[in-house]
Amino acid sequence: YLAVSGMYWGLTALDIMHMLTKEGVRHTPLVEGAESEAEGESAADTPFAQEDVVSFVMSCYQTVPLETGVGGGFGGAPKHDVHTLYTMSALQLLALYDSLDVLDVAEAEGGKTKRQSIIDWVCSLQLSDGSFSGDASGECDSRLTYTSLAILGILGVDMDMRRESGEGERVHIRDIVRADQVVGWLARCQSVDGGFSVSPGDESHGGQAFVTLGALSLLHSLSALPSPTLASLWLAQRQMPFVGGFNGRPSKKEDVCYSWWVGASLSLLSSWGLVDGGAVARFILRCQDTEDGGIADRPENRADAYHTMFGVAALSLIKSSGTADADTASLHVRPVSPAYCMPVHVCERLGLTWQVLDLDL
Amino acid sequence: MHGVKKSAIPPTAQELEQKKKQVDSFRSLINGLLAKREQGNMNPKILPHIGIALKYNPEHYTLWNYRRDILTDSMSQPVTEGVEAEAEGVDGEGEGGGVEDANVSAVATLTEELGVIEAALAKNPKVYSAWHHRRWVMDHILARSGAEDRLAIVHKELDLCKKLLTKGDSRNFHCWNHRRHVLTLLTRETQGGRERERETAAKTTTIPSIDMPLTLALIESDFTNHSAWHQRRLAIQQILTERESETSGERETVDMEFELDNLMSGVSMEPDSEGLFHIWYWLVSTGLSLSGCVGAEAEGVLETQLETYMPLYEDEPEHRYPLLMAKTCLFLLGRQAEADALGADQAMNTHWRLLRKDLSSRQ
């Protein structure tokens, strides 16, 4: 039910590690600076080549009826219902393989492109309180608000709220959704303790910190935060003494995936200096399965694609943070966007931007 | 996946074969169901099969969607009872009696549905789509039930949440979030049907008369249960900010001394618990003034707090929060230079600089 996300986790992790090209997964890493060329390898040997990935992703696409016509989205697997969680993963994969143009073909019925169908569907998901649901069922959760906004950004909508209208020919977020209302809703997800919750009033949680800050960042609206200072403190408090990894809430255990949820949040608030990045990196590396490969949630547990992705991506963030120790600074990993959770080279190709707030102490 | 230990003993060929058979069997069941969905098949007889698939994999969100579609299709009689009812009344065939029967039948079906969800949650209590489906079911049951029944239904749901939190994982945020939603429903039921009150009820995620005793019991059994502390803080905040209401009965009160003493017990046992610190910080920086404790009275409270936490820090300076609490007290008492100087060489200094900035911004 989450095949598309599983592929996104695995293939993005490989790309960060220089192990992916359009021809597929490499057996040896690319050297720094190289973009493609499966040198010395037969292209037929490499799994997850562009054609196969795009074909699978598109088999997860469906149109959905909207009041205003036709919408579109992706499910987690073929014949699974459309949902923004899997639509985001699908688009991240297409972007990774530089294949978003497959969405610029017209739908079978009507003159719209698939790209436009998806945009229209996401816009229809805005709830009366300003947040976004993940599908027609109306579930309210900041994760789903984040995925909806990220989808619009990846599809080329101008998300920069510092502007009143889109640059050049681009549609602006203000033109298609109630943008100020969603910014207000996101800001209300900050709790009195500085953390962020599923919806206003709930308990603060590390995962929600990432989606709230990420959403505000891609809207260039972090200044709407009631207290960036307490947010930085709450995030810094996630680091477990001795173990070095991050937990997701007070008095819970450390977990590799929070290296990303908390780590990306720290990146967005320029707050890596408040924690020991080297200790986080060493924790992630201790969670590797040295027999079968991959990274698990905790040392000696079973590895999976999700924790591998977020462990590798977090290592990249630590390297980029300027606070890495010598070992982490020398890791052969590509930079990652802390707002889009996509490799920076992919974001640059799409012209995606995001905001990073300075830490003003 | 979380918390799955890598087994030192690899599975046997037989175990792998059995597992493969199980996976193949469920995959076949699920593919069959998805094919029926694609064909638009809304036969209620499919529901038990979907239930089996969901017990195997409660995270299969498409199958929860399918259940909702089948249930919606089968409950085709419109609603006449409930807060959501429109004044126009029934749209379609039938006398009042026919519609009532349909509502009763729908409620019975939906009540069974709650059982299906409970079974899935027993397998995995942290599935977003299962909890969301439960909310949908609750909304539809309430929309088809009379006022007395609604109260009973909401109380029963609250009891289920209490059971799951006290006997299961007391930090399950899905359950706490659902419980907050149920408290909103209960507030709506007990505060009458007027629009203004319904709007207020929609924002109310705590009922202090229920939450204060429940959270105290949870906290006393585990001081690090920050989910319970969070709900307690919401209840305290509600009590302190509530205006006089026409329908107000007994008013809950907050005993600040008790709350601060309780926190002190917690901090002395868990001096590195940031959860306790945040509740305390909210109480001294916001709660005190909300409760009307200002000026010299507030200073008295802060002095007592300082006398509590300074010795805790001095005895064991390696712990985080007694130091930060002593510094906070000094700052709020106007002794800012002393606040900065205390334990300035400690690693907690960056955390203090953030707190200091926050405290300054409130002045």
TrEMBL record, chain A:
<feature type="domain" description="Prenyltransferase alpha-alpha toroid">
    <location>
        <begin position="5"/>
        <end position="342"/>
    </location>
</feature>
<protein>
    <recommendedName>
        <fullName>Geranylgeranyl transferase type II subunit beta</fullName>
    </recommendedName>
</protein>
<keyword id="KW-0479">Metal-binding</keyword>
<dbReference type="Pfam" id="PF00432">
    <property type="entry name" value="Prenyltrans"/>
</dbReference>
<keyword id="KW-0637">Prenyltransferase</keyword>
<dbReference type="GO" id="GO:0005968">
    <property type="term" value="C:Rab-protein geranylgeranyltransferase complex"/>
</dbReference>
<comment type="similarity">
    <text>Belongs to the protein prenyltransferase subunit beta family.</text>
</comment>
<dbReference type="InterPro" id="IPR008930">
    <property type="entry name" value="Terpenoid_cyclase/PrenylTrfase"/>
</dbReference>
<dbReference type="GO" id="GO:0046872">
    <property type="term" value="F:metal ion binding"/>
</dbReference>
<dbReference type="InterPro" id="IPR001330">
    <property type="entry name" value="Prenyltrans"/>
</dbReference>
<keyword id="KW-0808">Transferase</keyword>
<keyword id="KW-0677">Repeat</keyword>
<keyword id="KW-0862">Zinc</keyword>
<dbReference type="GO" id="GO:0004663">
    <property type="term" value="F:Rab geranylgeranyltransferase activity"/>
</dbReference>
<dbReference type="InterPro" id="IPR045089">
    <property type="entry name" value="PGGT1B-like"/>
</dbReference>
UniProtKB/TrEMBL annotation, chain B:
<keyword id="KW-0637">Prenyltransferase</keyword>
<feature type="region of interest" description="Disordered">
    <location>
        <begin position="1"/>
        <end position="20"/>
    </location>
</feature>
<dbReference type="GO" id="GO:0005737">
    <property type="term" value="C:cytoplasm"/>
</dbReference>
<keyword id="KW-0808">Transferase</keyword>
<dbReference type="Pfam" id="PF01239">
    <property type="entry name" value="PPTA"/>
</dbReference>
<comment type="similarity">
    <text>Belongs to the protein prenyltransferase subunit alpha family.</text>
</comment>
<dbReference type="InterPro" id="IPR002088">
    <property type="entry name" value="Prenyl_trans_a"/>
</dbReference>
<protein>
    <recommendedName>
        <fullName>Geranylgeranyl transferase type II subunit alpha</fullName>
    </recommendedName>
</protein>
<feature type="region of interest" description="Disordered">
    <location>
        <begin position="78"/>
        <end position="100"/>
    </location>
</feature>
<feature type="compositionally biased region" description="Acidic residues">
    <location>
        <begin position="83"/>
        <end position="94"/>
    </location>
</feature>
<dbReference type="GO" id="GO:0008318">
    <property type="term" value="F:protein prenyltransferase activity"/>
</dbReference>
<keyword id="KW-0677">Repeat</keyword>
